[in-house]
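Input structure tokens:
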């Protein structure tokens, strides 16, 4: 590995650790590569330098040529990733501006030029790419029912979405977009949303739900009706005593 490649890998790792949506994949046996919709995807492939390679998307049982290069120079056999698959540094392929159609299974076939044939005729690497939309701004809202029940709802752009909640720093069990809070809940509630390519969160303050004015009016009307009923019963009782 030369100094330029070392600096490249170090820079990509910093991007991976930070909030940048550029993704880098290198261990294809552990699972799929996740790419952020609209952002670059870097594929680190050993022995890419000094070989002829063919990058093909697998459609059912047929291989559809996507892009081919000879000695590191991109050829003309490209399809939907035309002008987006690039030979990048010694051991990197770069897919620019990932789109939905890039999701799928791929084969990368390497064939070595003489005198490297002693290393074998070639190598085929299978990899899966899953494209996900990045998380957008996270929004949290609180709604109150007439009974005083509180419901917290969380929404965000992106897919797929995995939710988690905390109340005053304590984790809540519900991993869904909408949860019911106990009566009297107050403090700071946080909704965190993530997928394989990005994450986001939003914190708001929660206070007791106000008593509904409708409920107060209902109670007053009920009390008035009860007083009228008791008055009628009392009057009827007095009337019956006078009749006797």
């Amino acid at each position: 590995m030369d100094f330029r490649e070392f600096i490249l890998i170090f820079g990509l790792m910093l991007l991976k650790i930070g909030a940048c949506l550029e993704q880098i994949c290198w261990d294809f046996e552990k699972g799929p590569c996740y790419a952020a919709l609209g952002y670059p995807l870097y594929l680190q492939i050993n022995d890419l330098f000094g070989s002829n390679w063919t990058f093909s998307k697998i459609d059912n049982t047929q291989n559809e040529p996507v892009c081919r290069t000879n000695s590191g120079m991109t050829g003309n056999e490209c399809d939907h990733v035309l002008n987006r698959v690039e030979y990048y540094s010694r051991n990197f392929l770069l897919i620019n501006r990932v789109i939905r159609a890039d999701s799928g299974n791929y084969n990368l076939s390497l064939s070595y030029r003489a005198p490297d044939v002693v290393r074998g005729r070639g190598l085929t690497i299978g990899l899966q790419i899953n494209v996900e939309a990045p998380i957008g701004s996270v929004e949290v809202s609180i709604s109150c029912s007439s009974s005083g029940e509180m419901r917290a709802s969380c929404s965000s752009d992106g897919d797929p979405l995995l939710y988690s909640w905390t109340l005053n720093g304590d984790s809540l069990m519900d991993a869904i977009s909408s949860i019911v809070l106990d009566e009297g809940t107050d403090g700071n509630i946080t909704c965190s949303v993530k997928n394989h390519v990005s994450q986001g969160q939003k914190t708001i303050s929660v206070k007791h739900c106000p008593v509904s004015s409708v409920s107060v009016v209902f109670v007053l009307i009920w009390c008035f009706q009860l007083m009228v009923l008791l008055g009628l019963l009392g009057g009827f009782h007095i009337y019956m005593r006078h009749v006797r």
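The domain at 139-206 is CATH 2.60.40.10 (Immunoglobulin-like). DSSP finds two helices and 17 strands in the chain.
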